[in-house]
UniProtKB/TrEMBL annotation:
Keywords: NAD, Nucleotide-binding, Oxidoreductase. InterPro entries: Aminoacid_DH-like_N_sf, Glu/Leu/Phe/Val/Trp_DH, Glu/Leu/Phe/Val/Trp_DH_C, Glu/Leu/Phe/Val/Trp_DH_dimer, Glu/Leu/Phe/Val_DH_AS, Glu_DH, NAD(P)-bd_dom_sf, NAD_bind_Glu_DH. Belongs to the Glu/Leu/Phe/Val dehydrogenases family. GO terms for biological process: L-glutamate catabolic process. The active site is at K128. Signal peptide: none annotated. NAD(+) binds at T212. This is Glutamate dehydrogenase.
Amino acid sequence: MTVMVPSMTPALARPASIPSDLTTPGLQALDSALRQLHHAAEHLGLDDGLRTMLATPRRSLTVSVPLRRENGQMDVVQGFRVQHNISRGPAKGGIRFHPATDIHEVTALAMWMTWKCALVGIPYGGAKGGVAVDPTALTSRELERLTRRYVNEILPLIGPEKDIPAPDVGTDEQTMAWIMDTYSVNTGYSVPGVVTGKPMTLGGSLGRAGATSRGVQIAALAALGRSPEGVTVAVQGFGKVGALAAQYLSDAGCVVVAVSDASGAVHAPGGLDVAALRVHAEESGGVLGYPHADAMAHDDLLELDVDMLVPAALENVITAANAPRVRARLVVEGANGPTTPEADEILADAGTTVVPDILANAGGVIVSYLEWVQNMQAYSWSAGEVELKLRDLMEGAYGEVRSLAGERGLSLRQAAHVIGVDRVAEAHRVRGLYP
Ligand code: GLU
């Protein structure tokens, strides 16, 4: 692993328990995030002090969360909340429940949130939370107890003006409802604006549930630059983001030929009926076994001869090992960090366009912002108003990234990072250093 920006704080140092030749997925994600920052900082000519500020989180909290299981046994799991940057506004970012999450992954994800919010012009810094647990192995009551206890542990950090969580991998509207309730009970009154991605009845926003996927569709169609009619698509990760992204792309005229999830991958060269497949996945717990398609190996999906590939699950799926075999000419990142820096170079050399995560999946946090604004004003917008604002912000950001990339000969990822990092650096410069 190469860390090219100064990063000597305890939060980023490799723990003694991890030998230096062993790379975990979290360290890989952090390495990617730091390398992307390094390139943007070089391009912008940032000084070392500012680079260190941007390479290190402002606050990192690790907590041990006791969990009472149904059989009375007590487990203790690790939880994290990292505020990477708060110079442009309150920290913002989801909470992930996943067995492999760790402080390094959460730090990388928080850093990506900082650039994402700056890039799309919403007044937030970046944060992320995580609990190292497999939510599918817990009962609903265990999940509720775990969520409430984790929120209690991170309570000093969060608040509608400080740090606003949202859903991420392994969490959903119900998790957000428990977070809102736990925070509100501690405060003594209802505070809907402490969390976004809530159920409608608690102050959620119309359009939030499908917002990331809608943003992926908007970014994909903008990058396509031609009629979507007949454009073939493979979607890796048929979950919260991928399933609806597949639906919206199919609604726009694309032909979704393959999708995958934890259960397996399915392929129908003539096109999948995405709506029917969503019903099948909902009812049977996964895409595997869908009758009108052939099963295929997970990894083969990434290498299919399609026009567009949408990785919409976790980090580090397109790597130096498989990137030379990626045949899609357009990759639209619904997930955070799905492409490693080495793979990015291979794709760029092959002339593949990659719409980077901090742009392609920004629809989620954009509508989170709109939800928070509605909460703070005790007001609500129609679905049409929300979609219009989402489209404006997504298309505006895409246009800025495209033109900077064209002007300076950068990839879309490099341009997106240059814009995001520059805006945060500028906020630091203008605010100055206290004391
Ligand atoms: N977890 C989502 C993301 O990675 C949404 C974050 C939010 O809405 O705050 O962008």
